[in-house]
Each structure stands twice: as structure tokens, then as C-alpha cells.
Amino acid sequence: MKTRIRTEAAVLWQIAWPVLIGQLATVGMGVSDVAMTGHLSAEELAAVSLGASLWSIILVTVMGIMMAVNAVVAHEVGANNLNKMPHTIRQSLWMGFGVGLIACLLLNAATLIFDHLHIDAVVNQKASQFVHVISLGLPAFGMYRALYGYTTSLNETKPVMMIALGGLGFNIVINWIFIYGHLGMPQLGATGCAVATGLGLWLMLVAMLLWIRRADVYRATYPFTHAEGPVWSEIRSMLKLGLPIGVTYFAEVSAFGAVGLLVARFGVIPVSANQIALNFSSLVFMVPLSIGIALTTRVGQTLGEGDAQRARFVSWVGVGIGLAFAIISATFIMVFRDLIAAAYTSDPDVQKMTAHLLLFAAIFQLSDAAQVTTSCAIRGYKVTRTPMLIHLMAFYGFALPIGSVLGLAPDWMPWHPDTPMAAQGFWIGLVLGLTVAGGLLLAYLQRISSLRVRMAANSGKIAG
């Protein structure tokens, strides 16, 4: 058994580590945005923080919707239906473009929320401009995630890593030029971050297209042999699988994003500290997420081969790896939270509050790792609605309501703290919500994986 676990863990890690580096590089764009504006002024940091609260919600929702491609292609790879894959990828690109375009329009409309948050007019204007510029990268991101699902489902994750690293390097250089106004360019501050990230997403799409065109591994399934218009029945089938994943991602990220927006009423320092703590938490989260993406691929391939018993084994090995990492990350955050805060900002008040919020980030590491790895394993079974409902209940039934009571202390509630706990209250709610999601998803994975094993056994008996 130990040998089987080590072997499967090695296979999962082989898929996951380039994805991890790619995910870290992608999130690193946001880290560089926050860190570089944080050393310009608290006002610019607040603008990026507010704009990023909306941007991250929409971006991750698009990423969730497009994860349908991972599950669909992984099953086709497992079943050796390589002849179907070019058509699937072409249709997924149409879906990615459409989803990205709609997301762009929604993100721009969402800036109206800033007018109701009682924030400084200058910060409002800068945050809105940040969103308007960065949103132009969303159609490219949707198509990039379609190709991302294609290549990772073939177990080819090196391009994801290399392209994301290139995108991060580009982002840092363009940030340096436009945030601070170097090389004769104007000092754009928060808007300079948006220019860098938006351009970077289009360049990443072009780089992925060129990689697929040149690499031999894609020859048997090369999707660009001819042009093909959108086929709504195919796109609708993928959307049926992907939309619940998108809603699941939306539930979690919007809960965190809503906290950033609700904290804005308490001033620049709380909103900046909240964004830094969230930004670093998102960076750490990339490890269990990458393991989860590998799990979706491995479980989908194994089920495509018709081996339900092995799919269950793969699922729990992946969950175990995620939980082991969570113990390490929780300890790291607890010990080094002051240094982490200082790396992001030179403002002592923001540093102090950030270090305090990072304590809560350390606490929810286990439940966060549990919920992401289990939900990704479940997606490998092509089941997406139940995880969606669990996440909606966890974040909108527990995290935000409890966080709002503690953070805002509304007078109309029968019980509330004597004074608002501000960001701290909201983070307590997030800890509770993640704990509920992690526990329920662990139980559901056990149920569905065991059910598939019994179904396979009964099918074998009937066939015999």
C-alpha cells in the first residue's frame, strides 16, 4: 500500500508542480501589483485593493467555468478518444472568448458598486479606472484557460509553467515602467498595474498558441487544422458542466472580495491590510489548488479508463497531500507573519493589522486545502452541482452573515458585538465558512467515490 501511495503521489506531483509554478506566477502578477503600489502610496494601494476585489471575483469565476475543459478532455484522453479532441478544443475556445467577453462587460458594470461604499472620491476614481483597463484582458484569459485545460489534460504542464513565468516577468517590468513613471513614461500608479496585467494576458494567449503549434506532443490532437464556427449544442454541454464550477469559485472568491469591499468603510489602513493578507493567502492557496487541478486530470483519466476503484484511491492520495502541505503552510504563516507584512508595505500601521489578519489565514489552511482538493477530485467524476451548493451554503449561509454581524455590528440584529470588529470579524466568518465547506466536501467525496466503486462492481457482475 505504501508503495502504491508513493507511486501515485509521484504521478500527481509530476502533473502538479509545473501547474503550481504557473499558478504562482499568475498570482504573482497580483502580488507584484499590490506590493509595488504599496511602496508608492497608501492611496494607490487602496485603489488597487478595491479594483482587485472585483477583478479577482470575475477572473476566478471565468477560470472555474473553463475548468469544464479539463474534465471533458481528461475523460477523452482516458478513453483514448483522441479523434474527438480537436473539435472539443475548437469549441472550448469559442466558449472561452464568449465567457471572457461577457465577464468584461459585467466587470465594468460592477464598478458602480464603488459609488455606494462611502470611499474617498479619488480612490473611487482610481479603482474604477483600474478595472476599466484590466478588464480588456478577460477575453484572452478565457481562451487561454481553454488551451490550459487542453494541455494539462494531456499531462503536458510545462507550457503552463513557462508561459506564466514569462507573463510574470513582463508584468513586473511593465509595472515598474508605468507605476513609477520610468523610461520617460507617465506615472500611472494603479492604472499602470492594469495596463501591465491586461497586456500580459493577451501575450500569454499568443505564447500558448505558438507553443501548441510547434510542439510535437500535440500533433495527434492538433485543433487548428481548419476553421470552425461555434456549435451551440457543444458549448452548452460544456457550460452545463462548467457553470456550476464557476458559481462554486464565485461563491468563495466573492465572499473574500465582499469582505474587501465592506471593510472599505473603515478606512485606507484596514482595506489595505485586508488585501495584503488575502493576497498572500491566495499565493499559498495555489499549492493545494495545483494539486486539485492534477486530481481533476488524474481522476478523469482513470474514470475514462473505467477503473472506479483506482479513481477513489487517486482522490484520497491527492487530498492527503493537500492536507500535509496545509500543516506546513499554517506553521509558516504563524511564525513569519510580521516579515510577510513588511515585505508588502512600509506603512507601520498597515503592517501591524496585516500581521494580525494573517493569524486567521494560518488557522484556515487545513479547511481551505480540504475544500479545494476534494472539490477538484469530485469534478473529475463530472459532478459539479453538489459542490456548488455546498460552497454557496458555506460562504453565503455562514461566512458572510457571521462575518457581517461581527465586522459591522448592525443595530438591527438581536445580537452583535458592542463595537464593530471590522476586518477581524469578517475573517472569523471566513474561517467558519471554510470549515463547513471542507467538512461537507470530504463527506461527499467519500460518498460519491464509494458509490462509483459499487456501481462498477454491480456492472461487472451483471456483465458476467
UniProtKB/TrEMBL annotation:
Record-linked InterPro entries: MATE_fam, MATE_MdtK, MdtK-like
Predominant place of localization: membrane
MF GO annotations: antiporter activity; xenobiotic transmembrane transporter activity
A GO cellular component entry from the record: plasma membrane
GO biological process terms held by the UniProt record: monoatomic ion transport
Keywords from the UniProt entry: Antiport, Cell membrane, Ion transport, Membrane, Transmembrane, Transmembrane helix, Transport
Organism, scientific name: Undibacterium jejuense
Membrane topology: Multi-pass membrane protein
Ranges that cross the membrane: 12-32, 52-73, 93-114, 129-148, 160-183, 189-212, 241-264, 276-295, 316-336, 356-377, 389-409, 421-445
Name assigned to this protein: Multidrug-efflux transporter
Subcellular location: Cell inner membrane
